[in-house]
Structure formats: C-alpha cells, structure tokens
C-alpha cells in the first residue's frame, strides 16, 4: 500500500511458488473451471446463519488482489444488522422504482426481462450478510495529504471478482446488486467522501426453493471469448 516517503524499489525474492507440472496444471485448471461453473447469482436466501469469520476470511482473500501501484483502492463494509439492511433495501427500492418506471430506458428494461428482476429486492433483507464494495477514488496520508490512486475501476473489479470467487469457494452464494445511483450508501456506512460505492453483494446460503433465470446458464462459447496467436 502507499506510504508517504517510500519511493525506492526494493526487490524481494519470490516468497511463494505454487507452479505445477503441465499435466497437473491442466487438471487443476479443468477442476477449477468445473467448480466455477457451479457458481450462480442467487436471489432467494436461506435463514441459515453465516459466521462472521467466514465473511472476514473471504474479504481478506479479496484484499490480496493486485492493484494499480499497489494502492489497494477498495474498502468492504460487511453488514449483518437487520435494521441497517432494511434501510438499504428501502433506499435501493426507491431508486429501482424510478428505474423501472422508465428511467432505465426501453432497451435496458428489455435486456433485463429474461433475468426476471423488478422493483422488489427481498434479497437485501433476507440474506444474512450484505457486503458493500467501495472504490477509493483517492487516498489520504496520516498527515492529511491527498494522493492519487491509479486504475481504480480495474483494481476494484479484480478484487470484487476475487471476493465472489472466495465466497463461492466457501460454499456461499451472492448476488451482484448495483442500484444506480448509490450515493446513500456512503453516508449510511460512514465512509469518507473519497470513496464511491460500486456494488452490494447479498451473501448467504441458497433457500431450498432458490431459482436462477434459465438465460443465466447461457454462456458464450470459447471461440467467442478467446483469440489465440501461436
């Protein structure tokens, strides 16, 4: 992370080596691919309690993500308090009403139709945890001096992807919820003006009657997402 006055490069011998032989690497990659295909964005949550230690461990994993200049421009707020979740749901649904009443535009609303979303967001109160992801637009030193963060959207996106993967690895499900705008979250979560909320992740275990949109299982074939130059 950034520290004022640390401007020199000091190489450190690679502390960990996890490389595998080619055949083992392929087997590991295929096993991981198979496990990640079981990840689903879920809107119906069980009442089963998720220990705080599990959430903390997943966020710690996300915190190991690479970032521009290693400034780590992210902050995660984990919320289990029922009253706070209810306030977040009420504020999010107020914004969603404006979106679905025409603010989102016909094309966007049509694109969401197969997903089955709407104004009501019960997952924001049903899930045992909400994790709010904040992007730190700039940092501040202990002396109060402001410094620039670099590649903030890219860095936060990588960390969020690692968080979602860690949650799945822990046997949990989540939903990538992005109400827009989300200005209410910064004040509600007590975050500084330098931080911008980018996503809410309801986190927990799936309800017995949990469903996913059929269209969500349609993934682009490899030829559509990969180009190889040999």
Question: Which descriptors apply to this entry?
Answer:
38% helix, alpha+beta, globular
What does this structure look like?
There is one protein chain. Helix 2 (52-62) packs across helix 6 (152-169). It is built from 8 helices and 6 strands. The model has no long low-confidence stretch (mean pLDDT 94). With 230 residues, it is α+β, with helices and mostly antiparallel strands. A hairpin with a 5-residue loop joins strand 3 and strand 4. The two termini are 37 Å apart. It has one domain (41-213): NADH Oxidase (3-Layer(aba) Sandwich).
Task: Describe the protein's topology.
Blueprint lengths: L21 H15 L15 H11 L11 E6 L2 H22 L2 H7 L10 H4 L2 E8 L1 E3 L5 E3 L3 H18 L3 E2 L8 H6 L6 E10 L17 H4 L5
Antiparallel strand pairs: 1-2, 2-6, 3-4, 5-6
Helix pairs in contact: 2-6
